User: Fold Multicopper oxidase from Actinokineospora fastidiosa.
Amino acid sequence: MCGGEDLDALGESMLNRRKMLAVGGAAGAALLVSYGWRSSLMAAPPGPETHDHTSGPVVLSSPPFALFAARMPVVPELAPVARTSTSDLYHLPVVPRNIEILPGLPTPVLTFGGSFPGPTIRARAGRRVVVAVENQAASPANVHLHGGHVAPEHDGHPLDTIAPAATRGYFYPNTQQGATLWYHDHSHHTEAEHVYKGLHGVYIIDDPAEVGLNLPSGEYDVPISLRDALFDTSGNLVFSGNPRDRDVILANGVPVPHFPVAARKYRLRLVNAATERSFTLSLGGGDEMIQIASDGGLLPAPVARTEVAISSGERVEVVVDFARYPVGSQVVLYDATGPVLRFDVTHTAADRSRVPATLRELPVLPAATVTRDVVLAFDRTTGSALGVVNGKVFDPHRVDFQVRRGTTEVWNVHNADVEPAVPHNFHLHLVQFSVLSRNGGPPGPDDLGRKDTVMLAPGETVQVKAHFGTEHLGRYLYHCHFLKHSSLGMMATMEIVA
Ligand SMILES: [Cu+2]
Assistant:
């Protein structure tokens, strides 16, 4: 089933071909503006007391840069190195690089394929993707396709890493509905640092079933990865320290950039690739964005929003109609902490796209036959913060839940960290779920559609329902997606059994 020929062909091509995509942070010599919204306004979740300042001087703020000076790139799509009748084959090495993110400063990063963030992979529903990953970095790394319905051996288990200089292939069947997924490192204990250093990219499943909807497409379909970072005066990314000090927001790898748009509709695929923060996004002075999709793909119907919140790992898709702004307008996308990105309406363009009143039918999930409780927390009784799920630190060799294939389950997921208050979120591998309720009431505005990651403020409980109608058997993870928390143990294993 795995197509050994495909892999052999890929191995050959990898030796002869290096496809390095350069996405530079080209910043002009514009007026330097330092941050006015940092520090006390930063709403990043307070992490546990795990700060490590032993390796150098404490860095509390990044060098200044000019807001909106650099242009946000559209991250290039990775071209397949080969195609067969059933599969598209990609080469995606893990490569250390020095790139310019802040003007004039070289920043050592870890990349997929040489680009920061990694190249976008645009898969097609029903066609298999094979990704050959050669690890050219000094430490073990791997790839998890977040939101992907994949076999356990291709899910990027924390212990299933690629040694330096080794290569392995990942098989993604793309047998699920169209959705904005993303891929990132999931290596044991090092996932947070690796993702922070750059090992993340967007993975889109294009669904032929969506074509008839006539949503904005082509150059008007723009993935935007949002994340934060802290730089020292030499340009190095600072990983240790408090995540609240990560004072630079990067959109597609560029600090608070501008992005020229036509006065027409755009489909914006927003991905929170930050390892430990939420974004609460609003446009201009609260202008409407039409939400069309969440983690698992299209909503049943579009929903008008003036604010969308996404925590680490979540995705939301909105259609913004820039036709309502005169050419020459500048429209800022804000986080609660300050500007993220400015859209500059530079020209008019024809627009035959639309947002239909009905997007897709979401199948009703069967009645649940199993209910489980999942409690996320830090255990501080030992003096150092340990992440726990139902009281237990992650043990990759332990199975926490056995789930019978084909069943539907309800999970009550609770964030017990009220004092001190620590936000968490919840990510389930393999399948998407529906949020049934939040704190005993209806789902929140950010709980729409099929989800695989959901926010949990301190003390909150979300009730989610998942159908495990899958062809795959084996072990998968569920965890907090604030990656420092999961690397500290806030992660557990379910085993899908026949
Ligand atoms: Cu957490």
Summary: The first strand starts at residue 82 and ends at 83. The chain has three domains: 4-42+72-210, 218-348, 370-497.
